[in-house]
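Ticket 4471: requesting a sanity check on a complex prediction with 2-acetamido-2-deoxy-beta-D-glucopyranose. Repro inputs:
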Amino acid sequence: MMKIFSVKVRSFSETIFCFLAFSLVGYANLDFTRHVNVFQGTAGGGNRFPGVVAAPFAMVKLGPDVKSGTADAYSGYLPNGNVWGYSLMHESGTGGAPKYGVVSQMPVIGDLPNPLVDLSQPRASPDEGNIGYYKSSLANGIVIELTATEHAGLYKYSFPSNSSGPSIVVDVSHVLPSFRGLGWEQHYSYGDFNFFEDGHYEGSGTYDNGWNLSPNWNIYFCGRFTQQPVTTKTFKGSGTTLASYDTTSSISGNERVGGVFTFKDSSVISRVGISYISTEKACQNLDNEIPEQTDFQNLVGKARNKWNTEVFSKIQISSENSSDHDLLYSSLLGMFMIPSNLTGENPDWSSPEPYYSDIFTLWDTHRCHTALFQIVQPEAYEEFIRSLIDIWRFDGFMPDARSSNYNGRVQGGSNADNVLADAYVKGVRGSINWDDGFSAMVTDAEVVPPNNHDPKAPDSSTKEGRGALPDWLKYGYNTPTFTRAVSRAVEYSTNDFGLYQVANGLGKIDEAERYLNRSRNWRNHWNPAASSNGHSGFVVPRRANGSFIPQDPLSCGGCYWGDAYYEDNPWVYSLNALHDVYTMKKWIGGDEKFVDRIDKLWELGIFNAGNEPSFASPYLYNFVKGKQHRSVERSRQIGKLYNAGERGLPGNSDAGAMEANILWQMIGLYPITGQTTFLILSPWFPELTINLGNGKRLTITTTGGNKDSAFYVQSLKVNDEPWTKSWISFEEIFSNGATLSFVLGSDPVDWATGDLPPSPSSGDQ
Ligand SMILES: *[C@@H]1O[C@H](CO)[C@@H](O)[C@H](O)[C@H]1NC(C)=O
Ligand SMILES: *[C@@H]1O[C@H](CO)[C@@H](O)[C@H](O)[C@H]1NC(C)=O
Ligand SMILES: *[C@@H]1O[C@H](CO)[C@@H](O)[C@H](O)[C@H]1NC(C)=O
Ligand SMILES: *[C@@H]1O[C@H](CO)[C@@H](O)[C@H](O)[C@H]1NC(C)=O
Ligand SMILES: *[C@@H]1O[C@H](CO)[C@@H](O)[C@H](O)[C@H]1NC(C)=O
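Returned structure tokens:
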């Protein structure tokens, strides 16, 4: 698939290169899109979305919806199976259960006595795509090409010339199903569909549920065709049983509703706009962004232009190896498809603040994605932070996850706190109201969110906030009254550390002291007697009377919603207090034991590069003198798990969290969220430049070695001055730009002899 894909795409990109050369300025006048495989991470559990996303954070994500037995198609796409529609809304890289897959069209040929039957088609060949462009060839000979803008999509259909009755079916009940049986499947509940004499159609659909357990939400649409249909019909029915199918122009109800447009031409173009606000707004979005006569290639070129200037040109490398370029730019694409910028499309309140949704989830992205989001897309990042705070203003709590304009679900802590802290300590100000930002964080830290009675975790809210807060406030730890008690406690500590950081910056002395103290509460779960594989001291469940509950540190029960630990075991969570590393180190038994504890994550087969709780663990060697090279070795091991192919991600993309992780490995740094600290690893390329805006750059060079065999750091200079610490702070490299000059070699050298990284909550140790 990669081969077919790259040959086609390269010739295609040349045809639009002229357009790009004229429209881009300065050092952005390069086309990086030929290095992008939009199919990266779309198979093998990556769940990435390969369809058209016309700009970073575009609301419209236009692509195929595929059926393959009972496999969930999280982003709509699966490499194998039949296509049953092409819809305008998707998430990218998520797990849990599919969300969206709404506002679709499906082309068919031949007589269509019943549009409610299965109209899906196998593909004649693998789908193809690149930035701004997607193509499917169906077994029945229909070819579908797609391009899009932020709020609208363009469909170009080529029907086989021998076919009779080329038709396009718009089924409002179309929504991605889930077969997992976990209660997270979406439902369609209401549709409204109308066609007009000029051949266009308008309407809306109502859906609920999905992983975030959302109540009913509406989406409005407006579709136009370049050709006048020869016949237009509406239909209504249940299952595959038709109740009506005729030329009535308006139809609505709780049953399946929609329309069938039949054409005489073998080439049909359709334009469809969407909106959360109204059908009028959907038409307006369409006519503003894709007016009649819009040239298909022109839209493709615009999408490429946007991705090149706004994202890809921000990071440039020198490398002879095209796999490096492919991995870099394909991963950058994966990072910026969600959240969606829905500014102007918020159906729930009006406000001068920006509005972003499709946060899926901060539990995944706070670890290293948001830190890179800030650097690559500073304007959008500031808007995103403002939007988190505005959601608190109007909904009462910031989201940990949010889709269809509804908060949910919360897997651990209230991790928006970490994201705000990270932005605050790195000097993100602009139009952010930080007093409100801190108040939003205090809500997380002090206000028990109303229980949403989630069957998977009935004890407390999974919608937002910190459900286990009653225990956290009363005991300084979470008792088994609460599900996920231990993993939530570790995250609440980090969240409270975030409050400390912002309170401290705002000069709120009392609050700073309170939350610094609370950031140490993870320690209250530490049972020094819990032992496993030559190690003792692990975070374990604890009763209200203070006694520890026996716990095998290798076990996490089911690791799921109802268990004491979520998605990982005590070994991993016992290394997760990244604001209090020296306490972890001391309680684990000192340097040597600490190093062995990290090693054991691999020896015992615990480490999972595809799961976020262990993202930072491989680099904690940097907190031990003389051990930075061990972090480098781990970094290289992790690098080998990635490539630009469809199975190129080691786990769910998770809204780009997985891609951000590999990008940090290439850069040779790893961020610690909520602090200005970056742990130093080993950069991959002779030269990598990050364009920081306003003419500032971070340039990272390596000499003397290479990425694959001679990757140990021998020495480092920062702005030509020798650097001997295993870490560096945000201000030193990102605030004004800098040069980092690494010398690499094939054997470890004890170069990092300076101060160890900070551990801000360990002060009393
Ligand atoms: C039309 O032509 C296509 C492509 O040549 C072929 O696959 C298909 O079977 C033909 N369909 C009919 C109805 O003849
Ligand atoms: C390019 O990099 C890839 C991935 O690291 C590696 O497998 C491949 O051997 C490299 N190719 C060359 C020509 O060095
Ligand atoms: C977000 O969307 C709004 C409305 O379309 C737009 O004005 C703003 O520039 C967008 N933000 C970014 C970073 O593109
Ligand atoms: C710190 O927190 C503990 C509970 O973990 C509490 O007993 C103690 O009073 C707190 N100290 C301060 C100064 O707030
Ligand atoms: C706490 O409760 C447990 C379980 O009921 C009991 O076995 C233990 O002895 C109690 N410990 C204390 C210190 O009261």
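Notes from triage: The two ends are 56 Å apart (CA to CA). Leaving this open until the requester confirms.
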